[in-house]
Amino acid sequence: MKATIYHNPRCSKSRQALALLKSHGIEPEVVEYLKSPLDSSELNKLLDLLSIEPHHLLRSKEAEYKTLGLSKSSTRNEIIEAIVTAPKLMERPIVITAKGARIGRPTEAIEAIL
Fold first, then answer.
1. At the topology level of CATH, where does 1-33+92-114 sit?
2. What is the mean pLDDT of residues 70-89?
3. What is the pTM of this model?
4. N or C: which end of the chain has fewer CB within 10 A?
């Protein structure tokens, strides 16, 4: 099975998700999104795959959330621009397979697409 994980190696949940994939015999494509940030087109596609409200893609406890004036009422475009500007605002880990896409919080959420 092919899989892609948007990964931050410093994040324990992200490391757990990667370990879960490997325990299922999956060697995913690992995208370290802090080193290779997504552009607005990629973020739009990711939101479509996840089928979530754009605000759920944000880490609201990051300082940049307040600095950039974000809130639950921020628009999709505002959220995408914020993540392009400050990639660490993007929730992680995110796993994509042929069966769909999930944010791995909790890590077990990924099981549904394996």
1. Glutaredoxin (3.40.30)
2. 98
3. 0.94
4. N
